Recover the amino acids of this structure.
């Protein structure tokens, strides 16, 4: 069983709408959690990093939350744009990185 | 510009024909690793290297070899490729094993027929 589970697998929204992606993990001990964005045909690029003591962190229209007690994180995207179409990967690090399978987001005009 | 460079981007080969995918980083990172990405699965680590001449197996090392003779280069070698190694491969580097951001290459899409 994967130690990092993401939902939904895929999501289609209209441009300008908001959305929230979920990440549940069982990785322990926990060092940090990153959200990566992977555009089609490219390698993942880090969006945010959260450590154990952080509950929320924003990067422009992206806001990540972390509940270390329930081992859940979310990535909220506000006012989506066509360029947000990508896969979003949750990565939890203890001794090494553990990857979720990703959520494929499609933003339609 | 800080980057991780993989070559080739696309490769189609036949079963059993040895191939090498190169990876080079210009950030003086100690840690480098190889992953494969398959539909519905997260990136799975094949091999990693914590420094020159130090390599170790990841989660799915069977059928792969690596070497780390220089800090900047970390090639992935498939001695006898098989169709189940058809996948999208990524090389990544970071300063050290824990608590740091990984920088990924553009990916190599390998098809073994």
């Amino acid at each position: 069983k994967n130690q990092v589970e993401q939902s939904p697998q895929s999501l289609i929204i209209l441009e300008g709408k908001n959305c929230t992606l979920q990440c549940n993990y069982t990785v322990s001990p926990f060092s940090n959690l990153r959200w990566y964005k992977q555009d089609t045909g490219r390698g993942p690029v880090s969006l945010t990093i959260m450590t154990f003591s952080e509950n929320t962190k924003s990067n422009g229209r992206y806001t990540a939350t972390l509940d270390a007690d329930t081992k859940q994180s979310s990535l909220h995207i506000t006012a989506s744009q066509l360029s947000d179409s990508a896969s979003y990967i949750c990565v939890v690090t203890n001794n090494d990185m553990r990857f979720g399978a990703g959520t494929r987001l499609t933003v339609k005009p | 510009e800080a980057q991780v460079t993989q070559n080739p981007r696309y490769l189609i080969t036949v079963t059993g024909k040895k191939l090498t995918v190169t990876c080079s980083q210009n950030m003086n990172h100690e840690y480098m690793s190889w992953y494969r990405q398959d539909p519905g699965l997260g990136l799975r680590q094949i091999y990693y290297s914590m420094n020159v001449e130090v390599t170790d197996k990841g989660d799915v090392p069977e059928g792969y070899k690596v070497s780390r003779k220089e800090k900047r280069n970390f090639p992935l070698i498939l001695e006898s490729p098989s169709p189940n190694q058809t996948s999208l491969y990524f090389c990544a580097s970071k300063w050290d094993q824990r608590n740091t951001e990984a920088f990924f290459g553009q990916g190599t899409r390998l098809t073994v027929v």
User: Anything to note?
Assistant: Residues 38 and 96 of chain A are 20 Å apart (CA to CA). The two ends of chain A are 37 Å apart (CA to CA).
